[in-house]
Write a structure and sequence with these properties.
Layout: H1 2-27, H2 33-54, H3 58-92, H4 98-124, H5 126-130
Helix pairs in contact: 1-2, 1-4, 2-3, 3-4
């Protein structure tokens, strides 16, 4: 069951990455091509992880964790750079680029937080995925079920 829950989380993560990749492209314009390409690429990997987790493949769990960890670092770096640019714009009073930089920062921050949520959930469900359930074995009937007749 944990495989299916985590698979659906990776499907949602992929959809979220597509939406967050398309939003800057619509609001900022063609200069946001890198966000669009990275959103589509990471969504494709998230969909792949979700599909193979749904099939019960253990390597998809590791790939999904590496993807979430990698994107967590990338979005932390990009959000911090975007925040510093935003602070510089506010400090120098340049209000022309302020809305698009603020939008960029908020989208990157939301992608960072979603990567953190996905990675946290994957780590907390790791035990259910990595340790296989016990195989059904024939158990002896309890003594009360087969009373001995004297």
């Amino acid at each position: 069951m944990a495989n299916k829950n985590l698979a659906f989380l990776f499907y949602f993560y992929g959809i979220y990455m597509i939406v967050c990749g398309i939003l800057p492209f619509f609001f900022v314009g063609p200069s946001a091509r890198s966000a669009f390409v990275s959103g589509i690429f990471s969504a494709g990997l998230a969909f792949t992880c979700g599909y193979f987790l749904n099939q019960g493949r253990q390597w998809a769990f590791w790939l999904g964790n590496l993807l979430a960890l990698f994107l967590l670092g990338i979005f932390a770096w990009r959000a911090s750079v975007s925040f510093l640019r935003l602070v510089d714009l506010i400090a120098y009073g340049d209000s022309f680029q302020l809305p698009e930089k603020a939008l960029s920062f908020l989208i990157l921050l939301s992608m960072f937080l979603m990567s953190l949520i996905v990675l946290s959930f994957a780590v907390f469900t790791a035990r259910n995925i990595l340790i296989p359930p016990p195989s059904p074995t024939l158990q002896e009937a309890p003594p009360e079920a087969n009373p001995v007749k004297l």
